[in-house]
Amino acid sequence: MTTPNETPLSPPPAGIFRFAPPILFLGAGTGFGLLFDTKALLVPDFTLIFPLLLPFFLVRPRTLRGGFLEGLLFGLAANMIGIHWITVSMENYGHLPVPLSLAGLSIFSLYLALYPALFRALSLRLGFWRAGTNRLALRSLWMAPALWVLCESGKTEILTGFPWNPLGSLLFGHPFLVLPARIIGTTGLSFLVVLETVLLAMALLTLSEGLRARALPVTLLPAGFIALWLLWGSTLEQAPSASPTLRVSLVQANIPPDQKWSAENLRKNLALYLALSQQGAGSGARLLVWPETALPALYNSPGTHLASTLSPLLSPGSFLLTGAIGEKPDASSPIGLSFTNAAVLYGPDGTLRADYTKRHLVPFGEFLPLPALFGWLRPMLGVSGDMARGALPGRFPLPEGGGTFSPLICYEALYPSLSREDLGNGHLLAVISDDAWFGDTSAPWQLFRESGMRAAENGVYLVRAANTGLSGIVAPDTTVLRSGPLFRKAVITETTPLPVGQTFYREHGEWVLRLSLSGLLFFLALSPLLEKRPPDAPLYGPDSSAG
Q1: Shortest CA distance to 539 belongs to which of 12, 4, 7, 5?
Q2: pTM of the model
């Protein structure tokens, strides 16, 4: 039953108007994808995310099936645009024809669309709206953000995960909005974005219903929440401290992938890296960073001898961090070996000081998940055998002693928990990557922004060296100190602080996610006691479950 001040739920639209909600969600998903498709170090119009999410809360789903379809359309449009760049690697390096690459993109986007579809359907099942009305219930203020971050987490973890384009990463480069990540992580920022959207929806619904007595306080809530968010961020801003520093040089050689592994180019590529690195070494760099798989040799093979090649480059007290391919015994392999994607550290004498094997491999790139189901894709993807994954975090000694830094290899930097675990008590994150596979698309920009969020969460600087770019240095407030160009050779040298101390997020990890899960499970456990009508009772009558 509705009160005199509540607008009763209108009957389902008839005729052509029944297509209005699906079209609305398709359009919102398109805008969502375009927002993440921005080719810039920061997204200037990130505030558009709030109106793009509003349909989830302004329009009540008519049925569970209808809500699921609306969320699916949103997610399909968002991912077809937001990650369209995967077709570049499939066409240029997997040699797939355009129709097949588009089919692959469509299937993958459809899978990722299941998460907003699930959110949309569960929003009705969990009672985000007051019974029999279009008005949002107060429970939606915490349940909607909690459910959203759970869906984002599912996308990050299920089937090895694809943690691309979380809401919180849109705030990269906007310090006062992003600094709370020191406490709540990027997951918590996604929570706040959804909470602000729910407050905005409540205000708009109140205005549309003409409830004058409630209009002023309710409409002030979204503005007040943003003001408090900015105030919170400003209190977390840290004044420059007398922390130790390290002079770092990032080397971007801009070698096309099809020239990277050809035998005739191996010596030439190594010579190019050595020549570019001389610029950094000449500028006093104590840590030289080369990109992912930059070293054209099996670094741990008995036949590999690099000391005489690398030692002239490295002055006393300086180190080289580079990506390389390694090998390890594997009785299940036809050749008795498996290959690894590794980060390796060489000391001043050119000898190996430490190595780290990539722990989170790229599905369909470095290994084939569920081979019984997807084995037929191997010839098309060029994944002849799975790479071996590592088991231990990478913690390398700093050149001048007194602490450690942690390497992350490309895709790994998108995983907040893995990055936090690898860093431990370290003072610097170093990301090595090769984004050439994605061409001149938004992928390198997305990777840079999302990797940079690890600096905010852990309160350290992040340096990133990528073969064709984007390379750069990110401060703990996500300010970009230096960055290089795309598809050009570059050497970026900068004195980088090494902050001492821990952030709350670094100590406690994904506590927002755990609290969200606990809250929703607790509500579900109590809901049979709180439910005023049978959970499967129709909203409009016997036929309300129809599509």
Answers
A1: 12
A2: 0.89
